[in-house]
Design goal:
By secondary structure, the protein is α/β, with parallel strands linked by helices. The chain contains ten helices and ten strands. The chain has helices at about 5-25, 40-60, 75-85, 105-110, 120-130, 140-150, 170-175, 205-210, 265, 285-300, and strands at about 30-40, 60-65, 90-95, 160, 195-200, 215-220, 235-240, 245, 255-260, 270-275. The strands form three sheets. Strands 5-4-6-7-10 form a five-stranded parallel β-sheet. Helix 2 crosses helix 10 (about 285-300). The longest helix has 21 residues, at about 5-25. The structure holds nicotinamide-adenine-dinucleotide. Nicotinamide-adenine-dinucleotide binds near residues 202 and 220.
């Protein structure tokens, strides 16, 4: 069965719109997100525009704060300090990547974790590891939501995560191995956890054999066709996070997007599988909206 991320994302946007409308009907103010953008990277401009549009669609107020690429680290730190203390702002993000002269970790570390709706501050990551209420970063939150909405239980299952990045591999491994009662109350995906998790990476030996023992494979490697049919146990769930551009003269753009899984041959044997595009990708912005509402509720 194909996991339809686009459909789930649309459903969640509808749920958020209703929840926020209900808050407004009670006379409460709208949640508010601020997005800090440095420079004019075209991809970042597009991401930010999409985030602001998605906020407007569900009734989250959103503000864009722009700086040119020569901004100093101190000016950005001052802005973060201001946002941390601005009571009208529930959450904010600093769009990455930042110019090379700015220390990304210093910037992220300055964000108040309660307003860190990208879930990337060391404090939020640490809280996630310790099973404390935290804001989970977008992609792992989206993956967890997809599993929950398709009733794919993880308890006692062997989950193989391929990739160990701070934004996908490490946090999803951590979330799925945790005891679920330690997850944040009130989240639809809170019952997920209790899995036996194996994390694989570029130095892992015999990836194929490890994958064959998996009930659930989550791959975030950035390598087309890394997961082939012979690596997948019949009936296993396959979550493909990878986004790769490959040349395609037949496409008007000259390229197309593929994931890390040989979808054509894996789909017939997998129990559940996410396509690329249309699987994990559409969940990312929705997770940011969910995180903003979560931050708003925790502050009020
Ligand atoms: P990354 O690019 O920082 O690192 C890739 C990871 O994969 C590393 O940990 C590496 O050890 C591992 N890896 C690479 N080749 C491997 C191999 N042959 N065998 C085993 N492990 C291997 O990771 P990232 O930032 O998590 O991104 C991974 C992919 O996911 C990229 O294609 C990225 O574009 C995509 N991505 C998608 C979304 C989304 O919303 N769908 C979000 C984030 C990242």
């Amino acid at each position: 069965m194909i996991i339809d991320g686009k459909q789930i994302a649309q459903t969640i946007r509808g749920e958020l719109r209703e929840q926020i409308a209900a808050l407004r009907a009670e006379g409460k103010r709208a949640p508010k997100l601020a997005v800090v953008l440095v420079g004019h990277n075209p991809a970042s401009e597009t991401y930010v525009a999409n985030k602001l549009k998605a906020c407007a669609e569900v009734g989250i107020e959103a503000e864009r704060i722009s700086y040119d690429e020569y901004v100093t680290e101190q000016t950005l730190l001052n802005e973060i300090h201001r946002l941390n203390n601005d009571d009208s702002i529930d959450g904010f993000i600093v769009q990455l990547p930042l110019p090379a002269h700015i220390n990304e970790l210093a910037i992220l570390s300055a964000i108040d974790y309660r307003k860190d709706v990208d879930g990337l501050t060391p404090e939020n990551v640490g809280r996630t590891v310790q099973g404390l209420p935290s804001i989970v970063s977008a992609t792992p939150r989206g993956i967890r939501e997809l599993l929950a909405r398709y009733h794919i239980a993880t308890e006692g299952k062997h989950v193989v995560v391929i990739g160990r990045s701070n934004i996908v591999g490490k946090p999803i491994a951590m979330l799925l191995m945790q005891r679920p009662y330690l997850s944040l109350p009130g989240m639809s995906a809170a019952s997920l956890g209790d899995a036996t998790v194996t994390v694989c990476h570029s130095k892992t030996q015999d990836l194929a054999s490890i994958c064959r023992t998996a009930d659930i494979i989550i791959v975030a490697a950035g390598s087309p066709n890394l997961v082939t049919a012979s690596m997948v146990k019949p009936g296993a769930t396959v979550i493909d996070v990878g986004i790769n551009r490959i040349d395609d003269p037949a496409s008007p753009r000259g390229y197309r997007l593929v994931g890390d899984v040989d979808f054509e041959h894996v789909a017939p044997i997998a129990g559940f599988i996410t396509p690329v595009p249309g699987g994990v990708g559409p969940m990312t912005i929705v997770s940011l909206l969910q995180n903003t509402l979560q931050a708003y509720k925790q502050r009020n």
